[in-house]
Amino acid sequence: MSRVALIRRLPKVELHVHLEGTLEPELAFALADRNDIPLPFASPEAMRAAYRFTDLQSFLDIYYASCSVLLTEQDFYDLTWAYVQRAHADNIRHVEPFFDPQTHTSRGIAFSVVAGGIRRALADAHVHFGVTSRLILCILRDLTEHDAMETLDEALREGLVDGLGLDSGETGNPPSKFARVFARARTARLHLVAHAGEEGPPSYVTEALDVLGAERIDHGVRVLEDPALTERLVMSGVCLTVCPSSNVALRVADTMESHPLRRMLEAGLRVTINSDDPAYFGGYLHDTYVQAAEALDLSDAQLVTLARNAIDGSFASQTRKDELRAELELATGY
Ligand code: HPA
Ligand code: ZN
């Protein structure tokens, strides 16, 4: 079996995808038209051509601006449903997407409109495709603790999310800024994750684990800089949701060939492959696996390990994990 054929067969689990980062220019234009909202681009092609980033912040500026076309519950449904269809086409069997409610509530859109539309599409994903999911609210770390706490309180009142995460501009916004928000979420029995060690130092990964109680680290590509932290993560089996095409697009890594993913895998870290913001970084999950596998010459066994790590690192029920592991064994012989 060719490498691409093996990747196609893998029952995949995606643990790091921002729903707002799946907004394709064509859908952005359709929603802009439907909602009578101007976009600063002449066409979807012109919008896509503007996607040239120098770092995380240069991407975030465009990513947040594009969200202005999302207004109604149906808009959030359509955004999520478009992703679900692509996920199904990529043989994704379970997904734990992120969304950024503060990007929308700050524009006057109710939390229930945002999360309600997303949840309805995720429920349909289960009915139509058998794709299971957990939904994770991400706090924007460049905003205040107060704003984060209000957002979490609203989410807990609505009961529409399964986990809490932390994203947006990392530099200067350490995890400890949100210690009390994560403590409250832990009391409410939400799952906890955090972006750390993308642009920020390895010490942010340590803080995410020790101060926030994060169960998974999103990105974490800088952990190899700290051998003691690497050893700790290997011993504890904490899952790292690595996004290689995002890291190249945002210049966290110089090239796909020099990306640390393979070295992380060979160090025994529980790494997974994810797409992050696929509408912006040139590919959904299948393509991301292929790009990384070809550039880093990953073996079949390493590809199966990546897929298994994602099952093991997910928040799916034990029964669902057993099902997915059985599907993986049947599909690959591993
Ligand atoms: N990092 C931080 N915030 C984000 C990202 C990311 O990769 N994608 C969307 N928001
Ligand atoms: Zn991310």
What would the principal axes of the Cα set say about the shape?
globular
Characterize the largest beta sheet: strand count, sense, and whether it forms a barrel: 7 strands, parallel
- Taking strands numbered 1, 2, ... along the chain, how are they ordered across the largest sheet? 3-5-6-7-8-9-10
The total count of helices amounts to: 17
Question: Which residues sit in consecutive blocks of at least 5 with pLDDT less than 50?
Answer: none
Rg, Å, rounded: 19 Å
Question: Would you kindly provide a written description of the structure presented here, covering whatever features stand out?
Answer:
This protein has 334 residues and is α/β, with parallel strands linked by helices. The protein has a single domain, classed as Metal-dependent hydrolases (TIM Barrel, Alpha-Beta Barrel). Helices cover 52% and strands 12% of the residues. It has helices at 3-9, 25-35, 44-49, 56-66, 73-89, 101-105, 111-129, 145-158, 179-187, 202-210, 227-236, 244-249, 261-266, 278-281, 285-296, 300-313, 318-332; strands at residues 12-14, 92-95, 98-99, 132-133, 136-140, 163-167, 191-196, 216-219, 239-242, 270-273. The strands form 2 sheets. Strands 3-5-6-7-8-9-10 form a 7-stranded parallel beta sheet. A 3-stranded parallel beta sheet has the order 1-2-4. Strand 5, helix 8 and strand 6 form a beta-alpha-beta unit. Helix 1 (3-9) runs antiparallel to helix 15 (285-296) and helix 8 (145-158) packs parallel to helix 9. It is globular and about 50 Å long. Bound molecules: hypoxanthine and zinc ion. Hypoxanthine is lined by residues 18, 21, 56, 167-168, 195, 198, 246, 276-277.
